[in-house]
Specification:
The complex is a heterodimer of chains A (348) and B (220). Chain A is built from ten helices and 20 strands. Chain A has 348 residues and is α+β, with helices and mostly antiparallel strands. Chain A folds into two domains: 2-229, P-loop containing nucleotide triphosphate hydrolases (Rossmann fold, 3-Layer(aba) Sandwich); 233-347, Beta Barrel (OB fold (Dihydrolipoamide Acetyltransferase, E2P)). Chain B is built from eight helices and no strands. Chain B has helices at residues 3-38, 44-53, 59-70, 85-121, 126-154, 157-163, 173-182, 186-218. The relative contact order of chain B is 0.15. Classes of the chains: A alpha+beta (348), B mainly alpha (220).
Chain lengths: 348, 220
């Protein structure tokens, strides 16, 4: 659908993107991961037709895109920015702006506004002044405005950065829903690796303006070298002590202790894969050394999987199957136990 | 002519002269401010800095420069504008151009990149994106217009030096206040001052009310 060939973008002496070759397939969810300043936003802006590359070529559905075609590209795709950007008017007028540019009828505009507000769970907010809403609600309005256009492709730049867990869940669910139901191609720039892995089929790792790795998200995140760079969920730093007998204990800053099989003393950074954590309503007796009581603060439906955010004093990300989730009848606010083996704790 | 009639005449003349000056500035100052706020080109910073620096120009200094230009032996003496309302209008327009450009530039500058990009990603062309920027800037633009009118009606130097404070022709509020005070007519001076303050406050209050309505109307 979108093909980039040798795309380079310079800002004076700074090379933001360096010789990028990329192919986005129609209907897929594609993520671009990288740290701040790696060029993710610039890449999305070029694909969205907001910015011109310094060098290189872009093709949309096989057609080469020149400067005069940018308006056409902008009508085929839209972008949601990391920093929420809203017009200083009502929610309705914000969402209807792009629809009016497309000269749609009043009836269709009203329908689209209502439908997109339903998707982001802001029903009845049409008449509210957009900038008077909370940060999370504002970002959801920005997403609704993009969804209402029903473009072929949607570019999301760190769509859940700075949002609370509840809003993150709503936004992520909306993204999955429109990809599933509307077959919209979605390109997400994120530094949240769990999000990239759970939402997208393919991922590109961008470091210093260059694509270092590209492939299936599951494969990308299995690579240990990438995992070191990418994994940011369930990472904890503490001081490890090795007792004469038994497992090592890592004391975190908040007083929490995690048992591990690592034989390393001093400052360590730990990582626990979200799928290695067992979730239960009652405390279970098992051989696992780590049991923590917590409260569910966020739920994201990922189709056959569900991601939960659990606050135990430190926030853990836990991934379970949809079937387990339904059978356990889990809800936000529910008190639950997390259990994982000392052997599931890895050093980053 | 009664004193009330004369005061009324002075008030109307002051509003008409400063209103005309502000209207002229809206024609060239607002587009120029939008241009400077939304475009990036070599030398732009120098131009913007110049307008910002000139905000503090003493009105007497500007009045003197223009007096020399409009006087019989000056380069524009052939126009015979000195001591006419038109001379004050032009002088005030030049004075408030700086305020208008400076305020509109900074308003557009703070809004432009974000809103323009937003409009473009929603499918807007360059022209449509520029319209969106203008709609978002309207509050600042109206504030600039109000500030310009207030500066014009409240200045003394230009009105005195180019108008000459001629009774029934170029006498405006500020020149009348200065005259009555020097003549010892303090009560009249205070009445005129309160009238001036009333006009300034009314303009500011009205603009504040107007701002939201205009924005709402523009986004319809």
């Amino acid at each position: 659908m979108i093909e980039l060939q040798s795309i380079t973008k310079n800002y004076d002496e700074i090379v933001a993107l360096d010789n990028i070759d990329l192919h986005i397939v129609k209907g897929e969810v594609f993520s671009v991961i990288g740290s701040n300043g790696s060029g993710k936003t610039t890449l999305l802006r070029i694909m969205a037709g907001v910015e011109n590359p310094t060098r290189g070529m872009m093709f949309f559905d096989g057609k080469k895109i020149d400067a005069e075609d940018l308006v056409e590209v902008r009508r085929k795709g839209t972008m949601v920015f990391q920093k929420t950007s809203l017009f200083n008017t009502t929610v309705y007028r914000n969402i209807s702006y792009g629809l009016k540019l497309r000269k749609l009828s009043h009836r269709i505009i009203d329908e689209r506004v209502e439908e997109s507000l339903n998707i982001v769970r802001l029903e009845g907010y049409e008449g509210r002044w957009a900038k008077s809403l909370s940060g999370g609600e504002q970002q959801r309005v920005a997403l609704a405005r993009a969804l209402a256009l029903k473009t072929e492709v949607l570019f999301l730049d760190e769509p859940t950065a700075n949002l609370d867990p509840k809003n993150v869940s709503i936004v992520e669910e909306a993204i999955m829903r429109i990809n599933r139901e509307g077959e919209t191609t979605i390109v997400i720039a994120t530094h949240n690796m769990f999000q990239a892995e759970s939402l997208s089929e393919r991922t590109a790792v961008l470091i210093g303006g260059k694509i270092q790795q590209i492939g299936r998200s599951k494969d990308i995140f299995k690579l240990s070298s990438i995992a070191d760079f990418t994994r940011i969920e369930n990472i904890f730093t503490g001081i490890s002590t090795i007792p004469k007998e038994g497992t090592s204990i890592v004391k975190l800053e908040n007083g929490m202790s995690i048992a591990t099989t690592i034989r390393q003393e001093g400052n360590v950074t730990l990582f626990i894969r979200p799928e290695d954590i067992i979730l239960s309503k009652e405390k279970i007796v098992s051989s696992a050394r780590n049991v923590f009581k917590g409260q569910i603060v966020g739920i994201t439906d990922l189709g056959h999987l569900v991601k939960l955010r659990v606050d135990t004093g430190r926030e853990f990300i836990v991934q379970i199957t949809k079937r387990s989730f339904d059978e356990m009848n889990l809800n936000i606010g529910l008190k639950i136990y997390l259990t994982f083996k000392a052997g599931s704790v890895h050093v980053v | 002519m009664t004193i009330e009639t004369e005061i009324f005449e002075i008030v109307v003349r002051a509003i008409a002269i400063s209103g005309a000056a502000t209207f002229l500035v809206v024609l060239w100052g607002v587009p120029m401010g939008i241009f400077l706020g939304s475009r990036r080109f070599r030398g732009r910073t120098v131009i913007v800095s110049f307008f910002n620096a000139m905000l503090g120009i003493p009105t007497v200094a500007l009045g003197l420069i223009l007096y020399l230009m409009f006087s019989k032996s000056g380069p524009l003496g052939f126009l015979h504008l000195l001591y006419t309302p038109l001379a004050i209008i032009l002088g005030q327009a030049i004075l408030v151009t700086l305020i208008t450009i400076s305020l509109v530039t900074s308003t557009v500058e703070s809004i432009d990149p974000e809103i323009k990009d937003l409009a473009k990603t929603l499918g807007a062309s360059e022209a449509e994106a520029a319209v969106a920027v203008f709609k978002e800037s309207i509050g600042g633009v109206l504030l600039a217009v109000a500030a310009s009118f207030n500066r014009a009606i409240a200045e003394l130097g230009v009105a005195l030096m180019l108008g000459g404070n001629l009774r029934g022709l170029t006498r405006v509020l500020t020149t009348s206040i200065a005259l009555e005070t020097t003549r010892g007519e303090l009560t009249l001076g205070i009445v005129l001052t309160l009238t001036l303050l009333g006009i300034v406050l009314t303009i500011n209050f009205s603009m504040n009310l107007l701002q939201r309505r205009v924005r709402s109307w523009l986004w319809r």
